[in-house]
Amino acid sequence: MKKAALYLSLVAALVVSSAALVQAQGKNITVKGSDTMVILGQRWAEVFMSKNTGLTVQVTGGGSGTGIAALINGTTDVAEASRPMKDGEKADAKSKRGKEVLELPVAVDGLAVYVNEANPIAELTLQQLKAIYTGAVKNWKDVGGSDQKIILYSRENNSGTYVYFKEHVLENGDYYPTAQTLPGTAAVINAVAQDKRGIGYGGIAYGKGIKHLRVKKDANSPAIEPTMENVLTSKYPISRYLYWYLAGQPTGDLRKFTDWVYSKEGQEVIEKVGYYPLNDTDRTNFSSRLTGAGPAKVAAVASKKKS
Amino acid sequence: MSTLATQITTAEVSEIRHRRIVDAVIEKVIYTSAFVSITIIFLIFLYVGKEALPVFTSAKVHEEVTLKMMFLPQHYGTAEAPVSYMWQPISQVPKYSLAPLLLGTFKVTLMAMLFATPLSVFAAIYTTEFAPRWLREIIKPAIELLAGIPSVVLGFFALIVLASWVQKIFDFEYRLNAVNAGIALGLAVIPVMYTIMEDALTAVPRKQRDAARALGATPWETAWKVVLPSALPGVLAGFILGFGRAMGETMIVLMASGNAAITSWTFAESVRTLSATIASELAEVVFGSPHYHVLFFVGTLLFAITFILNWLGTTIVGRLRRKLTGAIA
Questions:
Q1: Nearest CA of chain B to the CA of A9: how many Å?
Q2: In terms of CB atoms within 10 Å, which of A125, B74, B103, B257 comes out highest?
């Protein structure tokens, strides 16, 4: 029994000391969250570190929720998220960190809807997309296509993409249960390319065997192609902000980093990674939040979605 | 002084003492390794159980989900809506029915076993009873090499290639389905089952085969009616271990099954398993939310199911072995 206790304490000591080692690793900035944004975050970190020697920025993925959870628990400086933080999460963060969460939209992303290239359908309205994904419409002929069943492909519910599509296209309706959920945009594109009756959604990426649908806001509005220009000018109806979340106003190096992300140079990085930079109005608006001068709530985002 | 004592020099005494010390140290090291592994397993189980506990006790969790809601059919939406089972944790009204996940796990595992068991049994019989030595030396390592294929590679293969074949052969409506995932899972299980079954068959004494052949049995009759029955405990053990592996395997089903949480008995449709659900949702879940605790509960359930199966398996195998050896004696 005594022996057992001794060994147990040895194991405990090992665990504690290794945890302490991890904690002790100097002052650096940690960025954690959305898998959609992890490459963007890494590129930002690389360029920023090359201009500020002696500073380390660590970027890891795991998903928007993982990053937000880390922000709430105080294990990361910046949470990257491809969906806005929920009110409950903001309240949790405030009670645990003692500071109001600072919401910083840093880039723009568009979601494309894909069908197989053999599918005669070329455009759909948001309403039709909702009907298809909630199971109200089950046959392509009901939206102007050929008489065959619609096979739904979706992302896993751990992705910001899933949540964004659910909120903005399904208007918070539930996905029809037969929707097959796949890990990653590449898997969805591959599945749709192999399935003549399939439909899927994800980042605006091109793949063999699929085509992007033009999306109409409603039956009377024009069908918009998911291109850079249309996303930037907010013409394309399924576009979203990508966010950085901080606990309170940033100071010191973190402040320098966030300022830089909003600079021309920082915004240029976004395009190289394949997302869309903020337009100038948004950029001035959102970056002014860093000084505490900007509007506290995301009024601009809300108006953008409704317009 | 006795003659024996005078024969042992002081150098020899110190050498013996030295060897005793080394022996004691090694014993301690081995003891520590064993103890550390057990401690770690126990601590993990304790942690998972602790995180699942609020499903039973926390009022905050019960506002969103109760045990009844996880296992019994529910009226979703209005009270007039027909009862159904739904797993939709990210929703205005989160729905946490475990029925589609349990059914999905069962369907995929059953399919994997249906595919893998006959192949493993016959492959093991062939290599031990029929194959010439040189061929056995090739087949055995080749099958065991299959265990070295990372499951993510098998899953990717099933997602891209196997799914198209399966769809073409059976003309299924859904490309990713229980059959596709089951076959891929079977590929992962075959080496586990084959290795154990092969060992069990090899362990059957030569004498039994010779006796059967002397009594006029054909090689096939000897293999099927004499060798296989006496190796039955080992063969069953292989089956049970394979079953446990198939149930817990995550990456293959995550990629190859389509992951749609539906309750249907047909194997032609997409399925979502317990393990794939944990893998895909846990990384994103809000820490400490009802969804988080439910996922840990799912993990505990999965652990409990495999634990009970393994325990049942060893008990049955033990009983069978006693009965068989008893009958021979």
A1: 11
A2: B257
